[in-house]
Amino acid sequence: MIGLDKLSLNQVTVGNLTAAEAITLCAQHEISAIGLWRDRVAADGLAATAKAARSAGVHVSSLCRGGFFTHADPAAREAALDDNRAAIAEAAELEADALVLVCGGLVPGSRDLALARRMITDAISELVPCAQRAGVRLGIEPLHPMFCADRCVISSLGEAIDLALQFPADAVGIVVDTYHVWWDARLAAEIARAHGRIVSYQLCDWVLPLPEDVLLGRGHLGDGCIDFRLITDLVLATGYDGYAEVEILNRTVWDAAADVTALTVKSRFAGLLG
Amino acid sequence: MIGLDKLSLNQVTVGNLTAAEAITLCAQHEISAIGLWRDRVAADGLAATAKAARSAGVHVSSLCRGGFFTHADPAAREAALDDNRAAIAEAAELEADALVLVCGGLVPGSRDLALARRMITDAISELVPCAQRAGVRLGIEPLHPMFCADRCVISSLGEAIDLALQFPADAVGIVVDTYHVWWDARLAAEIARAHGRIVSYQLCDWVLPLPEDVLLGRGHLGDGCIDFRLITDLVLATGYDGYAEVEILNRTVWDAAADVTALTVKSRFAGLLG
Predict the structure, then answer these.
(1) Which of A214, B13, B244, B269 could cross-link with B248 by S-S, CB 3.0 to 4.6 Å?
(2) Distances (CA, A) of A253 to A15, A21, A257, B3
(3) Distance in angstroms (rounded) separating the CA atoms of residues A19 and A5
(4) What's the rounded mean pLDDT across residues A236-244?
């Protein structure tokens, strides 16, 4: 069980709103935290967004996203590191609990998973001192294996934890997103092993059939087949006391009025997890 | 490296052909084995298909499929067992190397993965004596996690091996299908652990973007991002000396002339694995 005071709304769930509008929506609906996306923060301005969140009393539970480290060209890898350093600075100014890393798929033109994974390890090594200086925790997010080729070769929670454990806990943790990891027979054991390393907990449901763009096949809690109470209890049992962030990428949800979405998010969360 | 003498063509790759036509195609193209599907075998008649394969000198490397064990209604579970016993008898008459099991998704109306997995274990327990009497090996096929909810809750090779190891090796093994397992960071270790348990090895490529029906997103070897030589070497290193079966579900491949498909399958196989 987790209370509504721990609910965070990821802004992509109300994808038509600006960052400022999403922050206002959270304040109006007494949702005490928000997950922000960099492009929307940039559109409103970093300083203005940070100020808006503080003024509204809305905490930033995560900033999405850094990562995409896997490039054949060394200059492109260096550019990715620079972009991630900028993301770390943004996360610091927003006082975000974590900077979410979507680490990148196969290196273009390559079928070598191990190469891509080494590049990711190397990149995170490079970023750790920057993250520590800024007081920002990087969250390695394992993505569902259907995104392995093009978005993230870190495809299971166990692999993300193995990677995170190579680095200091104040700098690197993992993100548990129910959508990406619910299927894993090792889930309970891996979450237990993530003790002290969970920097973000995200929730949305797995809804069938998958849409043509599989990025957008996510649903409100309860509309699909994920056992949220089970996974949430496992996460809480590690001592995690951060926010539970509802992050839904779905055209139908985007087309709904933001107030309706906020009410649905709250009622589903309370009903399934309260 | 694996020779063309170990190539098998799964009949679904030439999905417009009858079983008899697919057997003839294999013989004409000097492909020495075929993977058959039960519905097509039934359409031609079991005895006629078995005879056709023997006459043509084409070995049956697999029969697809048994499984779908996960039902809320006990009568439906019993009916599934009966159907699987029939499938075992068919595999025996065809002298197939393995009966492929697609074990089933979540129990309808349930979000309980553990329940579905227990039902699968129970069902295989029931089938083992029947398989042993018939001299048929059951092959537990882990399916890609994107099929976990609706087709198979066994989503990783490790889980399939853990399950198979509960039963005698002459009755239960696992199927390695590149499409379903290529993304797994534990792949090398798990394949090594499958020593003596691999009863079928299937190949097709992971091609992006995924089509609207994600069942059909598979491609000819070389058209996607899977490193077939790496995985094949791992499989062979376990002592596996069975066939390597090319199984492609893809509308464009189905629309091609069967002779062209057979030639493409052979040339890609030889080029990538020879």
Answers:
(1) B13
(2) 9, 17, 8, 52
(3) 21
(4) 98
Mean per-residue pLDDT, B187-216? 94
Instruction: Give me the residue from B145, B154, B211 closest to A144, CB to CB.
Output: B145
B54 Cα to chain A: minimum distance (Å): 39
d(CA A120, CA B111) in angstroms, rounded, equals: 34
* Residue A91 and residue A98 in contact, taking contact as beta carbons nearer than 8 Å: yes
Residue B215 has pLDDT above 90, yes or no: no
Give which of A154, A155, A178, A183 to mutate to test B binding, by max B Cβ within 10 Å. Answer: A183
DSSP structural state of residue A189? H
What does the pLDDT look like over B218-242, one tens digit per residue?
999 999 999 999 999 999 999 999 9
Q: Which of A153, A208, A211 sits opposite B150 (nearest CB)?
A: A208
Q: How far apart are CA B198 and CA A6, in angstroms?
A: 47
Candidates B146, B159, B182; nearest CB to A144? B146
Q: Confirm if B222 and B271 have CB atoms less than 8 A apart.
A: yes
Closest CA to A55 of A43, A63, A47: A47
* Contact: A113, B156; criterion CB under 8 Å: no
Q: What is the 3-state secondary structure (H, E, C) of B154-223?
A: CCCHHHHHHHHCCCCCCCEEEEEEHHHHCCCCCHHHHHHHCCCCEEEEEECEECCCCCCCHHHCEECCCC
Euclidean distance between CA atoms A10 and A8, whole angstroms: 6
Choose the weakest-confidence range: A143-157, A213-227, B114-128.
A213-227
Is the pLDDT at A154 greater than 90? The verdict is: yes
Which helix (H) or strand (E) segment holds residue B102: the answer is strand B99-102
**Per-residue pLDDT at B210:** 87
Output b/e per residue, A141-173; b: 16+ Cβ within 10 A. Answer: bbbbbbbbbbbbbbbbbbbbbbbbeebeeebbb
Contacts of A206 in chain B (CB under 8 A): 149
Q: DSSP code of A152?
A: B
ipTM of the complex model: 0.95
**Residues B83-124: tens digit of each pLDDT:** 999 999 999 999 999 999 999 999 999 999 999 999 999 999
Strand B205-206 vs strand A218-219: parallel, antiparallel, or unpaired?
A: unpaired
The CB-side HSE value for B130 (13 A sphere, CA atoms) comes to 18
With cut-offs at 50, 70 and 90, classify the pLDDT of residue A274.
confident
Side-chain half-sphere CA neighbours of B168 within 13 A = 13
- A217 pLDDT more than 90: no
- Which residue type is seen at A12? V
Sign of CA dihedral B231, B233, B239, B240: positive
How would you label B110-147 residue by residue, b for 16+ Cβ within 10 Å and e otherwise? ebbbeebbebbbebbebbbebbbebebbbbbbbbbbbb
Which residue type occupies A2? Answer: I
Q: How many helices and strands, by DSSP H and E, does chain B display?
A: 11, 10
